[in-house]
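thought: fold this chain, then report.
action: predict
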Amino acid sequence: MRVLRVHHIGIAVRDLEEALRFFSEVLGLEVEDTVIVEDQGMKAAWLSLGDVKLEVMEPLGPDTPVGRFLDRRGEGVHHISVLVDDIGEVSERLREAGVRLVYEEARKAYDGSLINFLHPKTAHGVLIELRQEEG
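observation:
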């Protein structure tokens, strides 16, 4: 089991365009891509920050994962994504260690990567995304 590096940090916001003005105009980060992820009920923008990316997410509605997060916690860091070499093996070892995963099986992300999440109740309050890149 290997965690290779931090892939991205997910940030939940109420207004993506307003947030992007801050991150791109004030901080000078480059917006690489903007996507709608229907199965997660969100719009997301990807910004480059060296080897780590920021995923800035706006919910498409209140009854979505990001919408519920905003209602409970407000804007801010939503999750940390780590790149792994074998998501199946990592998931199996984590379950054996008593870690609860959000999905029974890894799911395909919009870009073809495989993802799953460690439930924050078993990860010291942090939602951690496991990501195995396509290919």
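thought: worth noting. Helices lie at 16-26, 65-73, 87-96.
final: tokens above.
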